[in-house]
Design a protein that fits this description.
Elements: H1 2-5, E1 11-18, H2 25-34, E2 48-56, E3 59-67, H3 79-82, E4 87-93, H4 97-101, H5 103-113, E5 119-125, H6 137-146, E6 150-153, H7 162-181
Parallel strand pairs: 1-3, 1-4, 4-5, 5-6
Antiparallel strand pairs: 2-3
The protein binds guanosine-5'-diphosphate and magnesium ion (MG).
Membrane topology: Lipid-anchor
Subcellular location: Endomembrane system
Family: Belongs to the small GTPase superfamily. Rab family.
Length: about 180
């Protein structure tokens, strides 16, 4: 396990947030990185990323998490956005069916632009709106299984599963990368 003995080796993983406009990508990131929620957030302007650290197996693992430039129409997200990404969270809004129906298109985009080993998580955000839900947990689970993604419902508003979602992706990436390093 020479890799684990190498104290100097820290990691920086690029993770991208994708999914339709207004599903809550920017709020998931601000909740994770700063524990903030913004109820009247405008469409994100400019590509932004946040760097967030966590410890896995005694190593500092840093994630550079990218948020779209409010360019969430298909093909408007450029290849530079995806370049070098080792993880992705594809976000939809459980109260807007159309955002779920577009998940497969986002997945196709991701596959075009990134390595096949990219770790993908499907995120059904706005779980606090379960009373007006348009997407069931069962069908999201089925879609995730079909495409070897993990799946979680989150609420950026109520701070449910947000840290968990990001950390699950990071742990999975770390597992793959450390296997490669051995
Ligand atoms: P983005 O376009 O995907 O980055 O979405 P935003 O983060 O800008 O959020 C779009 C809208 O959805 C904003 O009005 C947010 O306040 C709202 N929103 C984001 N996350 C949640 C959530 O978990 N629950 C609810 N009820 N609203 C949310
Ligand atoms: Mg945004």
């Amino acid at each position: 396990m020479s890799y684990q003995d190498d104290q100097s080796e820290d990691y920086l993983f690029k993770v991208v947030l994708i999914g339709d406009s207004a599903v809550g990508k920017s709020n998931l990131l601000s909740r994770y990185a700063r524990n903030e929620f913004n109820s009247n957030s405008k469409a994100t302007i400019g590509v932004e990323f946040q760097t967030q650290s966590m410890e896995i197996d005694g190593k500092e693992v840093k994630a550079q998490i990218w948020d779209t430039a409010g360019q969430e129409r298909f093909r408007a997200v450029t290849s530079a956005y995806y370049r070098g990404a080792v993880g992705a969270l594809i976000v939809y809004d459980i109260s807007r069916r159309g955002t779920f129906e577009n998940v497969s298109r986002w997945l196709d985009e991701l596959k075009v632009h990134s390595d096949s080993s990219v770790v993908v998580m499907l995120v059904g955000n706005k779980s606090d709106l379960a009373h007006i839900r348009e997407v069931s947990v069962e069908e999201a689970t089925a879609l995730a299984e079909k495409n070897t993604m993990s799946f979680m419902e989150t609420s950026a508003l109520e701070s449910v599963n947000v840290v968990d979602a990001f950390q699950t992706v990071l742990k999975e990436i770390h597992k793959i990368v450390s296997k490669k390093a051995l």
